[in-house]
Amino acid sequence: MDLKTASALRRLRLVSAPEAVSFLLLLVCSVLKRTTDFNAVPVMGMVHGVLFVLYVLFWADAWNRAKWPLRTAALYFVLSVLPAGGFFAERRLRREAEDAVIASRARREGVVSA
């Protein structure tokens, strides 16, 4: 994996968890808006919207650079629209990055995997 691909995956991973948190907070704010006088939906809506747009941009870049199959790319996109799906995406992306680092080190050291 080259440096640009690793950077694209890292950016997607780093925005996944905050996007999931903002989605959950937006849901909580929506409930509070309807049950109390507290209305933070406009602010949380904007925060979540910005994070979601960043997620989609980083997702498209990662898909292009990592050459994911359609199924993998679709999975990461679906995770972005599910509440708490970003947490699963972050964990899966971290595992994918760790596997890529291990494979890169093995290739550099000339170790053949079985």
TrEMBL record:
Statement: the UniProt record of this protein carries the keyword Membrane: yes
Pfam families linked: DUF3817
Cellular compartment(s): Cell membrane
Coiled-coil boundaries: none
UniProt topology in membrane: Multi-pass membrane protein
Keywords: Cell membrane, Membrane, Transmembrane, Transmembrane helix
GO cellular component: plasma membrane
Superkingdom assignment: Bacteria
Keyword field contains Cell membrane: yes
InterPro entries: DUF3817_TM (IPR023845)
Domain DUF3817 positions: 9-95
Transmembrane segments: 39-60, 72-89
PANTHER family named among the record's database cross-references: MEMBRANE PROTEIN, MEMBRANE PROTEIN-RELATED
Entry protein name: Membrane protein
